[in-house]
From TrEMBL:
Residues 4-96 form the SnoaL-like domain. Coiled coil: none annotated. The lineage of its organism: Bacteria, Bacillati, Actinomycetota, Actinomycetes, Kitasatosporales. This is SnoaL-like domain-containing protein. It comes from Streptomyces nymphaeiformis.
Length: 141
């Protein structure tokens, strides 16, 4: 999905959020329970952009019907190199309604879990339309 890839590579969170369906379900590589909804998914993706450095997509695979996409990425979480894949499914309107991420190696997945855990209060506040003390939701982005 070229528009999503361009938005992520440009760090354009408004464009990323515009590509998410209201009923999108985000499945994290480090959390057991999926996260349903556009607000929490967008907040998680903003959190990931704060945690990852040197992020780049290295391969894109599209299913036969054009509604399933796999975007392979490389990045760093602290001192750990991480490789992962964003699996996206598009609904009838062309919006992302299923977003699953898988990562490797295990040491990098642990680093990601720790870094995202440190972000979770901010992520929850952004998803709720509030922000941590002293910070407006706009500043959270």
């Amino acid at each position: 999905m070229k528009s999503f890839r361009r938005a992520v590579e440009a760090n354009d969170h408004a464009a990323i959020e515009a590509l998410l369906a209201e009923d999108v379900v985000f499945t994290s590589p480090v959390a057991f329970k999926p996260y349903p909804g556009k607000a929490i998914t967008a907040a998680i993706l903003r959190g990931v952009s704060r945690v990852f450095s040197d992020f780049r997509y290295v391969r894109e695979i599209t299913g036969e019907d054009g509604r399933d996409h796999a975007l392979v990425f490389e990045a760093r979480v602290g001192d750990r190199a991480i490789t992962g894949c964003d699996f996206l499914h598009l609904n009838e309107q062309g919006l992302i309604d299923d977003f699953m991420v898988m990562v490797r190696p295990l040491s990098a997945a642990h680093a990601l879990a720790e870094a995202m855990g440190a972000q979770f209060d901010r992520i929850a506040a952004e998803a709720a339309g509030t922000a941590p003390a002293g910070e407006s939701p706009a500043q959270s982005r």
